[in-house]
């Protein structure tokens, strides 16, 4: 039986300087049931700890426990939506300041890390065009790649 991630499953420190970013993601019931299981790292190279609590998905780096993203899952009729997510902007906890990178990373974590689907299935196009992009991708996503 697959263990469901909870806030007590791994070290986690909340986001302290959040910025709100707009996104438009839609999920069906099957996808929602995968999202709420979260992700508990098996090893530090997994890079991410993700859990669901009180309608929120929380994304933390596995090494530090620092919160990087959080998103409210909203139920409307027969679907679930993420319309906004929040990203850390405390430079001591998270160096990235590029909103496009945040949208790309957040979408990838949901698609590959939680849903185990191609990123394009959640209507997001992510292109890896160079060796530098591959190295950066592994740095951000670890074994999820």
Index terms:
alpha+beta
Topology:
Elements: E1 18-27, H1 29-35, E2 48-53, E3 56-61, E4 67-72, E5 74-76, E6 79-88, H2 99-114, H3 131-141
Antiparallel strand pairs: 1-6, 2-3, 3-4, 4-6, 5-6
Give your account of this protein's structure:
The two termini are 24 Å apart. Strands 1, 2, 3, 4, 5 and 6 form a six-stranded antiparallel sheet that branches. The chain has one domain. By secondary structure, the protein is an alpha+beta fold. It contains three helices and six strands.
Tell me briefly what this model is:
The protein is of the alpha+beta class. The chain contains three helices and six strands, in the order βαβββββαα. A hairpin with a 5-residue loop joins strand 3 (56-61) and strand 4.
Helicity range of the residues?
10-25%
Largest sheet: 6 strands, antiparallel
Mean pLDDT: 86
Q: How many discrete domains?
A: 1
Morphology: globular
Distance between the termini: 24 Å
Radius of gyration: 14 Å
User: Helix/strand-derived class?
Assistant: alpha+beta
Low-confidence stretches: 124-131
The percentage of residues in β strands lies in 25-35%
Q: What is the H-and-E element order?
A: EHEEEEEHH
Helical stretch tally: 3
Number of strands: 6
